[in-house]
Structure formats: structure tokens, C-alpha cells
């Protein structure tokens, strides 16, 4: 069974950091960018917040029920929720 990238995903996920898996909920969006020919996706980790021992700028793996992808955490908001971004095949 093949899964094609979607434009959005809201639901459960896992963030893998240094071999530790953290269950989270995410809100993700994405689109193909013809300028560089890549799919760019982004969103916010909405629950739980904060992730213990995780800092802005961390390289992580984001996993959902349909896939996983390398990502980067940035822009921690006042509630400890990170923005997450990735390029290429998304985890949704």
C-alpha cells in the first residue's frame, strides 16, 4: 500500500530525540514548492508541552501512523510548544 503526502495532518505523533520517543499531538501543514522542487512541511507540537530536555534547534524524527521524517524544532512559544519543520516526504 502506498501513501501519498497530504497537505495537512492533525493528530497523534511521536518525537524521537536521542533515541527517546515522546508521544505528542501535532498540527502540520505542507505544500510543494516549485522553486526548489521540494515538499515543505511545518507545524506545531500541541501536546504535551514542554518536552523534557529538548531545546529549540534540535534535530529530531517526527513519526505518525503513516510515516516518519527528519525534522527540526524551533520557535518555542511561551507554553513550551515547539514549531516543527521539515523538507521532503512528510510524516503524514
Walk me through this protein's architecture.
There is one protein chain. 0% of the residues lie in helices and 58% in strands. The protein is mostly beta strands. The chain has one domain. The protein has a 6-stranded antiparallel beta barrel with strand order 1-2-3-6-5-4. A hairpin with a 2-residue loop joins β1 and β2. The model has no long low-confidence stretch (mean pLDDT 90).
Short overview:
The protein contains no helices and six strands. The chain has strands spanning 8-17, 20-33, 38-47, 59-64, 67-74, 83-87.
| Number of spatially distinct domains | 1
Give the DSSP E fraction (strand runs of 2 or more residues).
over 45%
- Low-pLDDT stretches are none
Question: What order do the SSEs take from the amino end to the carboxyl end, as H and E?
Answer: EEEEEE
Strand order in the largest sheet: 1-2-3-6-5-4
In terms of quaternary structure, the protein is single chain
The radius of gyration is 13 Å
Taking the sheet with the most strands, its summary is:
6 strands, antiparallel, barrel
User: Percent helix among the residues?
Assistant: under 10%
Mean pLDDT: 90
Features of this protein?
92 residues, mainly beta, 6-stranded antiparallel beta barrel
Helix-strand layout with pairing:
Blueprint: E1 8-17, E2 20-33, E3 38-47, E4 59-64, E5 67-74, E6 83-87
